[in-house]
Amino acid sequence: MTRLAQTPDLTEFQTDVLAAVRTFVDKEIIPNAQELEHSDTYPQAIVDQMAEMGLFGLMIPTEYGGLGESLLTYALCVEELARGWMSVSGVINTHFITAYMIRQHGTDEQKQRFLPRMATGEVRGAFSMSEPELGSDVAAIRTRAVRDGDDYVINGQKMWLTNGGTSSLVAALVKTDEGAEKPHRNLTTFLIEKPAGFGEVVPGITIPGKIEKMGYKGIDTTELVFDGYRAPATDILGGEPGKGFGHMMDGVEVGRVNVSARACGVALRSFELAAAYAQQRRTFGKPIVDHQAISFKLAEMATKVEAAHLMMVNAARLKDSGDRNDVAAGMAKYLASEYCAEVTQESFRIHGGYGYSTEYEIERLMREAPFLLIGEGTSEIQKTIISKGVLRSYGL
Ligand SMILES: Cc1cc2nc3c(=O)[nH]c(=O)nc-3n(C[C@H](O)[C@H](O)[C@H](O)COP(=O)(O)OP(=O)(O)OC[C@H]3O[C@@H](n4cnc5c(N)ncnc54)[C@H](O)[C@@H]3O)c2cc1C
Predict the structure, then answer these.
(1) Alpha carbon 229 to chain centroid distance?
(2) Residues 267 and 380 in one domain
(3) Which pLDDT does position 145 carry in this prediction?
(4) What local confidence, expressed as pLDDT, does residue 1 receive?
(5) PANTHER family, alphabetically (predicted)?
(6) Ligand 1 centre from 87 Cα, in Å?
(7) pLDDT, tens digit, for every residue of 139-158?
(8) Distance (Å) from CA 139 to ligand 1 centroid
(9) Positions marked active-site
(10) Residue 355's CATH number
């Protein structure tokens, strides 16, 4: 082995696209990330270049103008982008999940209506399950859509929309009255087009403003308030109410591979910075890497980076093969995000006092890592999924 996080058996196209993304990250993202993060500035120039590279349409089928690539290609690109700046990977993540759900579950008309414009990045997706009172407990959603003629009237409040302000299409999970006993069978996904921006963007939809966060800056995370918003019944994903929970869980499952890829990228960058710093910084007459305590830290970090990458690649390949991957995605997300938190922490320690300075990248990576323990389901939720899944095979 020469370098960490290598992936065997890639196609020529995958190798080329990854090389292009890596060069883009090294030249355009890493040199600008600290300044954009600290000024909380949306990375418009970077996003424009990502659109030019076709990254918004990576997994959208070629018949709709996308590149028709696999989840693995997507995840490896995300790993590279997050190595540069996690916020940039956040710009395409909700877009990718929304496009994936439309590709898998949309009507033909919905695919025609949205996917070509999503492939170019003209329409940009956000997805919304969480509310002020719930995140893990999705079936408890309160935002309600009530049928009125050919429309539904939606009222309620959604929370934590990544790209809520900059997106122009929101896949929103809300409650409808299907008369089902099980609460999750009364949930429906609406595809809601709206202009980008803040305030009352269309009658009945308000995006109040950006939520201030400890990290993951530059991109907007918002609330969304529905107040009598009228959605035509044709905007129900797949055309049929009561199927929304399944749609979202499918989206979140690929989203978990994406979060593990981000964790791999953040951990890899933290390792790279620590390895470089440990060879430059001298104490007691020698580089700190020559103290075994530090070289052992690097060994542990490298092993975690490698293990997380392998789990992430395994989960992506499983999904691409058409097999069920809920357990593999849960394991990858759980392991990669926990390791990422540990690796960033160790890199921070290796940087000594400088790790606490905002001039050094590691302080940003330290603030990025905790979100990965939460987004697309917390570690506790992943463990619930993993234990249920493995006990299907090991039950007595
Ligand atoms: C920056 C950011 C961006 C986000 N972007 C989006 C987005 O784009 N779209 C979206 O819909 N949501 C988004 N979220 C919301 C995110 O998905 C939720 O925060 C997450 O699912 C956890 O939900 P919660 O915050 O309500 O915590 P809770 O569900 O209230 O959990 C609180 C604690 O209890 C634990 N817990 C809960 N239930 C159990 C259980 N059954 N067993 C054991 N422990 C349990 C949790 O693990 C956690 O430690 C975002 C969040 C953040 C911070």
Answers:
(1) 27
(2) yes
(3) 98
(4) 63
(5) ACYL-COA DEHYDROGENASE (PTHR43884), ISOVALERYL-COA DEHYDROGENASE, MITOCHONDRIAL-RELATED (PTHR43884:SF12)
(6) 19
(7) 999 999 999 999 999 999 99
(8) 13
(9) 376
(10) 1.20.140.10
